[in-house]
Design a protein that fits this description.
alpha+beta, 10% strand, Alpha-Beta Plaits, binds guanosine-5'-triphosphate
Length: 394
């Protein structure tokens, strides 16, 4: 398979291959039984006459049993996949080998039994037809196709050479040609099959990447506002289900306009990137969501975090932001930020918007009180919960 699909797609392509082979095997088994029926039923008075009737019945029993065994193998494969999500291709292959070997040996038996001499031509045609059917369904797997064609054709070819039929050399040569020809054609079909799979996987990969890009802020690599809003609603609903708290920290850089005006937008951009690095370093739980929700405004959503914990985290972050220093041509730029924290124990009556609104009010209060502050959204409209201290920003 390595020749056909990129290495990263091999596990998923293997799974898909076995599932497709199982799906294609059902009509294959029906065709197998139908070919046997078409071989003997139109000439029933010949096949079921003495002295052939016993052999005909035994061969019919063997062909039927092998078809049922192959069906059981397909069924077992499906059950294993459904219950354990494992794709055991060997079970499918076993069914293929049993049914093709049964046919190969039965047709060899027919050819070698003197009383069936008149049926040799139709037996060989039936075998060739089955090989063509096998190509149609098993071509994607070289292993499966070889395990089908070889036991199907080799026993009858050997048998026809052994009985010394006048056309035995032609029959054997045609069987050999059929084997090589079908195998050769299968290579083209295999390439087409895996090319189609690879294109599908590449498309899915690209569309996942595109969907992921669509959730990101291009400058900082943090999540964007749209994603954040959706995530906040999801996490809020989860908090209702789990009866757990959820906290939100809104962060707004202080006097950021001055940074742009004094040092230019490129330096401003560098400050925003540095801020995002500080956020990523500080909040690294998989369930936290970090986003840039405005020009110089950031948000951190903290599921399961209580108010006191959120306040402590916010204050540590504030101190960390104070330490940020960005070197530019004329001077080093330092930053401060104001932070608003809100925590809710969500209920059916509350909403994610309320959580955001309260954090925004707290942030506004932190700004009002002189910036470089952390303010907590109060239970009432009183804002006595302000912590931190004012320092000059850049
Ligand atoms: N460099 C840069 N600046 C941006 C970006 N987005 C927004 N800004 C700037 O951020 C500044 C925000 O200014 P204001 O809203 O007045 O806020 P502020 O100057 O930080 O003042 P306070 O928030 O009240 O402390 C504006 O000058 C915007 O141009 C960006 O992507 N890159």
């Amino acid at each position: 398979m390595k020749r056909y699909v990129d290495e990263r797609f091999i596990p998923i392509a293997t799974q898909q291959l076995y599932q497709d082979l199982a799906t294609r095997s059902f009509p294959g088994v029906i065709f197998y039984m139908a070919v046997w029926a078409a071989l003997i039923l139109p000439k029933a008075e010949y096949f079921f006459a003495e002295p052939r009737i016993h052999t005909t019945l035994i061969l019919t029993a063997i062909i039927s049993a092998s078809a049922i065994t192959r069906l059981l193998c397909i069924y077992t494969f499906r059950i294993q996949f459904k219950n354990h999500n494992t794709c055991n291709g060997n079970i499918l292959l076993l069914g293929v080998i049993i049914s093709s070997l049964a046919w190969g040996l039965c047709s060899a038996q027919l050819i070698m039994t003197a009383s069936f001499q008149d049926a040799i031509a139709s037996t060989m045609i039936a075998g060739a037809g089955l090989c063509a059917g096998g190509l149609a369904s098993l071509a994607p797997s070289r292993r499966f196709l070889i395990c089908f064609l070889v036991p199907m054709l080799i026993p009858s070819s050997i048998a026809i050479l052994l009985v010394g039929h006048p056309f035995s050399a032609s029959y054997a040569a045609l069987s050999g040609l059929l084997l090589c020809g079908l195998y050769g054609i299968s290579g083209i079909q295999r390439r087409e099959y895996f090319n189609a799979l690879e294109s599908q996987y590449e498309l899915e990969e690209k569309s996942d990447q595109l969907a992921e890009l669509n959730t990101l802020d291009p400058l900082t690599g943090l999540k964007n506002k749209r994603f954040f809003d959706e995530k906040m609603t999801d996490e809020f609903n989860r908090a209702i289900r789990d009866n757990s708290p959820i906290s939100l920290i809104l962060i707004d850089l202080d006097h950021f306009k001055k940074v742009n005006d004094l040092h230019g937008h490129l330096v401003g951009d560098e400050c925003l990137k540095e801020m995002s690095r500080a956020l990523k370093a500080k909040f690294n739980r998989a369930i936290d969501t970090l986003a840039r929700v405005g020009g110089e405004e950031f948000a951190v959503l903290l599921p399961t975090i209580h108010q006191d914990q959120a306040m402590a985290l916010a204050d540590k972050l504030r101190k960390q932001i104070e330490q940020i220093s960005i070197s530019c041509e004329d001077c080093d730029v330092s930053l401060t930020a104001s932070l608003g924290v809100s925590t809710l124990y969500p209920s059916e009556e509350s909403s994610a918007q309320e959580l955001f609104k309260r954090a925004d009010l707290a942030l506004y209060e932190a700004k009002r009180l002189g910036r470089n502050q952390v303010a907590r959204a109060p239970a009432t409209d009183d804002y006595s919960g302000v912590t931190g201290r004012s320092t000059s920003s850049c």
